[in-house]
TrEMBL record, chain A:
It is a peripheral membrane protein. Gene3D superfamilies: P-loop containing nucleotide triphosphate hydrolases. The keyword ATP-binding applies. GO terms for biological process: peptide transport. Belongs to the ABC transporter superfamily. Keywords: ATP-binding, Cell membrane, Membrane, Nucleotide-binding, Transport. InterPro entries: AAA+_ATPase (IPR003593), ABC_Ni/Peptide_Import (IPR050388), ABC_transporter-like_ATP-bd (IPR003439), ABC_transporter-like_CS (IPR017871), Oligopep_ABC_C (IPR013563), P-loop_NTPase (IPR027417). It is found in: Cell membrane. Its main location: membrane. It comes from the Bacteria. This is Glutathione ABC transporter ATP-binding protein. It comes from Subtercola boreus. One of its GO terms (cellular component) is plasma membrane.
Automatic annotation (TrEMBL), chain B:
Residues 104-302 form the ABC transmembrane type-1 domain. It comes from Subtercola boreus. It comes from the Bacteria. The chain crosses the membrane at residues 39-61, 110-132, 139-164, 170-190, 232-257, 280-302. It is a multi-pass membrane protein. This is Peptide ABC transporter permease. GO terms for cellular component: plasma membrane. InterPro entries: BP-dependent_transpt_permease, MetI-like, MetI-like_sf. Belongs to the binding-protein-dependent transport system permease family. GO terms for biological process: transmembrane transport. Pfam families: BPD_transp_1. Keywords: Cell membrane, Membrane, Transmembrane, Transmembrane helix, Transport. It is found in: Cell membrane. PANTHER family: D,D-DIPEPTIDE TRANSPORT SYSTEM PERMEASE PROTEIN DDPC-RELATED, OLIGOPEPTIDE TRANSPORT SYSTEM PERMEASE PROTEIN APPC.
Length: 576, 352
């Protein structure tokens, strides 16, 4: 969309921006001659994977670069006031002093952060925090500032703002906190909002609401938005124009519909191809199901949960927190059960209970013929060699002081299959080969591997003892989408080869659909729906599953617009 | 296995650091720039001189610490600095320069004994308390807090009386200082290691060791302890300087080491009190400087190590605008992840 053609005013234009960082390893260039512009009332999405320079580009619009960075180029930001009629005054952010920068932040450009729970100060009320911005930029009495804060909270959809304005951040839910952060950004009516991954930390149903709110910011407030994200579904949902960044440069820029329909650049094509869609997994699932023996259904399951309850002890004088509330499920040998749910639904707790990391407090959970309710660690230790565990965060799941080979050898050494890591090296090499890592990577330290490589090494470690059950707790949620695609592919391959049963925990329906034979949906500690992928995702019965499915943004702007309407109808129906 | 994708050249490996550059202090020296480097270098030089004096006191000092006469007879008391006695002599007739050099040896001994006594016990208790938690942890934390309230010098005086009945000899004095420092410093090691242990206990790699079935002892030693020693160098140096100060304080108060048993700066300072008023400066200045410099040197090293260990406090050279190369950060098709099955045959010539 050309600015001249639409006659809209340019809010910010970035010309030949270059940013370099000083690191221990010398200078690193993060942004390499990037030129972009955003018009009034437009949403520009900057898409890219971690390290592509998208956040640095966006933060430099606010002059928020750390001291170790140096920037060159121009970021011309138009000012909301001060210019003569018709034309706005402009500032070059890079050449502004710190004092001048303070002047434009909040009034001309403001920011919405990724993690709403850390972007708000826990010891002040949200009203105070919104008023803080107001009072920094003008003389307002306490009462006036508060009135404005109430007004803006109402406009971002916080119910009962007169009371809520005096609440502290912890009294809001995650989605509401993000609304407060957006209110904080909007209160001075800036021409531009920079939203850095505004929905990454939120559940998908909440994400849909926040995206709706951001769309309203554009339509009702006329605010231009720079949206930074790695989620192609979010881009398809909200963006008017998309800039794809790769290794510090913009490789492609087009309006959203064109980009998704006809990507030009190779990188963009690959990026779009690696986004998982719902329905991709149906074929594989059917194939696997047909390959199974007749008696498979009658064989003894690997994991059986009956009325499983897990309660975390509360603080003194308060009741405990029930994380899992009467859940029944089974995992049969060689089967992948996908466990889907939002944060707090208890899915991770179930995984940890099966791995013996969390105590079962009620009901029955049988893992490999051992009753987990009241089991002793000494008894369970032998069973552990039959259970593999893949953790969510590849960055912290390896001891940073041990080499990859030593880490992968750990289970072999602990269970006496090898005397020391060196003796286990041959087996470690085999395992690394199985997860498609070169043998020489065994001598590297975890920080020398990328996230995807680390997660593969994590798989190698989990499979070292050839377990009959693997628990994967969000193994791909910390990974970029193209890396995720490779790791999922590998997971499916290994599952075929080793034939282990697996509990695959994820918040992403599309990811679970790719791998799982059956899908179980958890909602607030209860199992609301269970069935094959086709059953659960094709014809969801429970309203929560329907809403979850409808909230998932698809990477196609046209289809996503339709889905948005469907979701709106669904929500309206629920309210009645 | 999937069909091999196109082989990709292996990314250049970051050069492995040599053993020398990975040693604690040497590594930080290489990292530092500007003022932080100046502080570290100054600290290292002062500490180096101190250690050399202590180790080679016999060679450096012209006389023994208890020597009162040479072949020319008695030295004489309170002599001004001269060619014979470059820093003069004390009221008791000892050579000041020799006693300052020999004093370094005593100070170093106290440091070593104090650190050895407190570090093992403190680290062990911290590890156990942080890892297991529960009632043991609560008791130990309360105990540690109680010990904080103890004035270390008072404790040292009590110790010196208990150990040697007030009659200070070399080992009595050293042990009194060292043990009082130990008692005060065990809680510090304990606290630091405990908090690190509590933090690391929650990390995924500890949990992954647990699900593997590793024993508690193995997890504690292999996974927790090795990752929780980052801040030890700082307390280590503070501990050392505190030990020197306590020894000097003991000596100054008259609970130090007899001049015939060993040279001790605090004792010499005490004896020079009356000299100061009568214009005899050399007997007080040199031992006093020795105390100040040895403590300063060790503390400087500790402080700089602390700053350098934290990436947020670590100073860096400024880069030119638009300098540096774009790092291969992305892991997209065509990037590092392509080292798949093709990578194994393609990259490793020796593999089958």
């Amino acid at each position: 969309m050309n600015n001249e053609a639409t006659g809209r005013q340019t809010i910010v234009s970035i010309e030949d921006l270059e940013v370099s960082f000083s690191t221990d390893a010398g200078a690193i260039k993060a942004v390499d001659r990037v030129s972009l512009s955003v018009a009034a009332g437009e949403v520009l999405a900057i898409v890219g994977e971690s390290g592509s320079g998208k956040t640095v580009t966006a933060k430099s619009i606010l002059g928020l670069l750390p001291e170790t960075a140096t920037a060159r180029g121009a970021i011309v930001l138009s000012s909301r006031d001060g210019g003569s009629r018709g034309t706005r005054a402009t500032n070059d952010v890079i050449s502004l002093s710190k004092r001048q920068l303070r002047g434009i932040r909040g009034t001309d450009v403001s920011m919405v952060f990724q993690e709403p729970s850390t972007a708000l100060n826990p010891v002040y009320t949200v009203g105070w925090q919104i008023a803080e911005g107001l009072r920094a930029h003008g003389k307002l009495s306490r009462a006036e500032a508060k009135a404005k804060a109430i007004d803006i909270l109402r406009r971002v959809g916080i119910p009962d703002p007169e009371t809520r304005v005096n609440y502290y951040p912890h009294q809001f839910s995650g989605g509401q906190k993000q609304r407060v952060v957006i209110a904080q950004a909007l209160v001075l009516d800036p021409g531009l909002i920079v939203a850095d991954e505004p929905t990454t930390a939120l559940d998908v149903t909440v994400q849909a609401e926040i995206l709706d709110l951001l769309r309203r910011c554009r339509d009702e407030f006329g605010t231009a938005i720079v949206l930074i994200t790695h989620n192609m579904g979010v881009v398809a949902d909200l963006a008017d124009r998309v800039a794809v960044m790769y290794q510090g440069t913009v490789v492609e820029e087009a309006d959203a519909v064109t980009l998704f329909a006809h990507p030009q650049n190779d990188y963009t094509k690959k990026l779009l191809a690696s986004v998982p869609h719902i329905g991709q997994g149906a074929l594989q699932t059917a194939e696997r199901a047909s390959g199974r023996a007749e008696a498979w259904q009658d064989a003894k399951p690997v994991v059986v949960a009956k009325d499983l309850r897990i309660e975390y002890p509360g603080r003194f004088g308060r009741g405990g927190f029930v994380a899992v509330d009467g859940v029944d499920f089974e995992i049969r040998a060689g089967e992948v059960l996908g466990l889907v749910g939002e944060s707090g639904s208890g899915k991770t707790t179930i995984g940890r209970a099966i791995g013996g990391l969390t105590k079962v407090t009620g009901g029955s959970l049988q893992v490999l013929d051992h009753e987990m309710n009241g089991i002793r660690e000494r008894v369970f230790k032998k069973v552990r060699s039959d259970i593999g565990f893949v953790f969510q965060d590849p960055a912290s799941s390896f001891n940073p002081l041990l080499t990859i080979a030593e880490c992968v050898a750990e289970p072999l050494v602990v269970h006496g299959r090898a005397r020391d890591p060196r003796a286990a090296r041959a087996r470690v090499d085999e395992l690394l080969e199985a997860v498609q890592l070169p043998k020489s990577y065994g001598d590297r330290y975890p920080h020398e591997l990328s996230g995807g490589q680390r997660q593969r090494a994590s798989l190698a470690r989990a499979l070292a003892l050839e377990p009959s059950l693997l628990i994967a707790d969000e193994p791909t949620s910390a990974l970029d989408v193209s890396v995720q695609a490779r790791v999922l592919e590998l997971f499916a391959e290994l599952q075929r080869e080793f034939g282990f049963a697996a509990l695959f925990i994820s918040h992403d329906l599309a990811v679970v659909d790719l791998l799982a034979d059956r899908i179980a949906v958890l909602y607030k500690g209860k199992l609301v729906e269970e069935g094959t992928g086709a059953e659960v995702l094709g014809a969801p019965k429970h309203p929560y599953t329907q809403r979850l499915l409808a909230s998932l943004p698809v990477p196609d702007p046209v289809e996503q617009a339709e889905r948005r309407e469907a979701l709106r109808a669904l929500r309206a129906a629920e309210r009645v | 296995m999937s069909a091999p994708t196109a082989p990709v050249a292996r990314a250049a490996r970051a050069p492995r650091r040599t053993l020398l550059s990975r040693l604690p202090v040497v590594h930080q020296l290489g990292q530092s720039v500007g003022l932080q480097r100046g502080m570290l270098v100054a600290g290292l030089i002062i500490t180096g001189v101190f250690v050399i004096c202590a180790l080679f006191a016999q060679l450096i000092a012209p006389y023994g610490f208890a020597q009162l006469r040479d072949e020319n007879g008695q030295f004489g008391a309170q002599l001004e600095p001269s060619a014979q006695h470059i820093w003069g002599t004390t009221v008791g007739g000892y050579d000041v320069f020799s006693r300052v050099i020999w004093g370094a040896q005593t100070a170093l001994e106290v440091m070593i004994v104090a650190i050895i006594l407190s570090i093992f016990l403190g680290v062990f208790l911290g590890l156990v308390s942080g890892y297991f938690g529960g009632w043991l942890d609560r008791i130990l934390v309360v105990l540690a807090d109680a010990i904080y309230a103890f004035p270390s010098l008072l404790l040292a005086i009590v110790m010196s009386i208990v150990i040697s009945g007030g009659q200070s000899n070399l080992y009595g004095g050293i042990l009194a200082a060292a043990i009082s420092i130990t008692v005060v410093y065990i809680p510090q090691y304990f606290r630091v290691i405990r908090s690190e242990t509590v933090r690391i206990k929650g990390e995924a790699f500890v949990e992954s060791a647990k699900v593997i079935g590793a024993s508690n002892a193995r997890i504690m030693v292999r996974h927790v302890l090795r990752n929780s020693t980052r801040t030890l160098p700082l307390i280590f140096t503070l501990n050392a300087s505190e030990a020197v100060l306590t020894l000097a304080g003991l000596g100054f108060l008259g609970f130090g080491i007899e001049p015939t048993a060993a040279a001790e700066w605090g004792f010499d300072l005490n004896k020079s009190l009356s000299d100061v008023t009568s214009g005899i400066w050399w007997t007080a200045v040199f031992p006093g400087l020795a105390i100040v410099l040895s403590v300063l040197g060790v503390t400087l090293v500790g402080e700089s190590l602390n700053d350098l260990a934290d990436p947020r406090l670590r100073g860096r050279r400024a880069v030119t605008a638009a300098g540096g190369a774009v790092a291969a950060t992305s892991v997209v098709p065509g990037g590092t992840l392509e080292a798949g099955p093709a990578g194994i045959t393609g990259l490793e010539g020796t593999s089958s």
